[in-house]
Amino acid sequence: MNRFTLDTIGEIGFGKCIGSLEDPSSPFLQSFDKAQQIAFQRFVLPVWRPLRWLGIGHERETRKHFQLLDEYSHSVAQDLRKGLSRDTGRAGIAWEDIETRKSFIGLFLQDAKKRGQELSDDYLRDLVLNFLIAGRDTTAQALSWAIFLLCMTPECEAKARREIRDVCGVRGPAYDDMSRLRYVQAVLSETLRLFPSVPLDAKYAQSDDVLPDGTVVPRGTTVFYNLYSMGRDHAIWGEDAEVFRPERWLEMESPPSNYAYPVFNAGPRECLGRRLAIVEMKTCLAMILPELSFRLAIPVDQVMPDAQLTIGMSRGLPCTVVRASEPREVDDLASTASAVGQSGKATSSGSCTSEFAVDEEEDNADSDGQEEEKPC
Ligand code: HEM
After folding, report:
1. Same-domain check for residues 190 and 299
2. Total-model pTM
């Protein structure tokens, strides 16, 4: 999943084919992972500077990995500049230059040019790195948790598959289908509620403030909020807060405010890639679910959240993949249902059992309550 989302952000973010799906051994990939681990360790162990200076502990390879990322993102920035400034002449614009122009960073560059601004190389490098870091693990992990939760709830998986087949038919997903995949949207919203890709976030008070409950926040305070707990809070989500129940999103009259459900942040610094991430995840599920079905290949209590900057899985998600047409064995379903309970204990995630055996009539009625996802 990481490689899929990395290649996607490469193409959409800056019109470049990273090719990690073809070549997982790339040194860039290794440095990318290592650099993120080093950055996370700095939160955990604030006295990292002497370690970096001495080149020991988790800072031992900092220079090597950071340098590789620096060089890579600088070279991407250079290519972007070249692609945009190339004289198109009579021969027209080359395909890769069109891709560059349409990419996120290409659009930033063109906008700056229109306003007579020149973006520095370092600024562009930071943009490239920002998109890579923000767009890879978040989306890959949300997709992995969605597949895990669908493994645990065959009824939900079947409903999502039925919707995808109804909406996309045999031609596969198209952009215009996205807003009609309401149940799939509910699966993703519910997944992010239980496993928010960014499980813990913080705000820094630039001036004195008072929270709605009267708590005084002096200037300079860092306030942390725990999205993982908020997503499981009975006061917000009701008594079944721990249960994976996509239907709750279809039953709502209006979606929760971004402040009650800040999985993409709220306010002016909302996630810039929110709509891209939703299209990407829906497209991925719409491509695979009609064909394939996933069965967990390890005991459910071994799928543990691994919360760093984002929330992955400590052992990945080993699955057996079968054709979607193959019926689930009775034994298989029974073991899943009991395993779901264990998962609730092991991961604090919830259980979704027979309550999802919604019949067709109810299924249709459900869809009407769902807030239309804005075209992305
Ligand atoms: C499921 C997928 C995703 C989730 C849950 C997610 C979540 C978030 C969150 C919580 C923040 C705010 C972090 C903070 O406090 O500063 C954020 C910011 C951001 N995200 Fe995402 N994100 C996702 C995918 C993406 C993708 C695919 C991109 C690709 C472009 C992206 C680009 C960004 C950027 C550029 C910011 C910084 C925005 C700003 O500070 O103005 N995200 N995201």
Report:
1. yes
2. 0.83
Q: What is the DSSP string of 299-315?
A: -GGG--EEESSSEEETT
Residue 372 lies in a domain: no
Q: Which of 103, 135, 167 is the last residue of a domain?
A: 135
Number of Cβ atoms within 10 Å of the Cβ of 94: 12
| 359 Cα: distance to centroid of ligand 1 (angstroms) | 36
**Best substitution site from 185, 187, 271, 285 to test ligand 1's pocket, by max atoms within 8 Å of Cβ?**
271
Q: How far apart are CA 309 and CA 196, in angstroms?
A: 11
Residue 293 is predicted with a pLDDT of 94
* Cα of 59 from ligand 1 centre, angstroms: 26
The DSSP bridge partners found for residue 306 are: 312
Residues 298-324 have a mean pLDDT of 90
Q: Is residue 374 part of a domain?
A: no
pLDDT tens-place string over residues 123-142: 989 988 999 889 999 999 99
Tokens read off for 272: 């810039």
- The mean per-residue pLDDT over the stretch 207-216 comes to 95
Q: Is the pLDDT of residue 329 over 60?
A: no
Residue ranges lining ligand 1, Cβ < 6 Å: 9, 13, 130-131, 134-135, 138-139, 142, 192, 197-198, 201, 263-265, 269, 271-273, 276-277
Q: What does the DSSP assignment read for 319-350? A: EEEEETTSPPPHHHHHHHHHHHHHHHHHHS--
> Same domain for 250 and 108?
no
**Are 165 and 282 found together in one domain?**
yes
pLDDT(359) > 60? no
Asked if 94 and 149 sit in the same domain, the reply is no
Model confidence at 376: pLDDT above 70: no
Q: What is the pLDDT of residue 118?
A: 85
Identify the pLDDT of residue 113: 86
Q: Which domain covers residue 108, as residue numbers?
A: 2-135
Cα separation, 189 vs 198, whole angstroms: 14
Residue among 199, 193, 222, 232 nearest 309 (CA): 199
Sequence-distant (6+) residues with CB within 8 A of 232 are 194, 241, 242, 348
Query: Do 167 and 104 belong to one domain?
Result: no
2 closest CA partner among 233, 14, 16, 28: 28
Tokens of 305: 């959240």
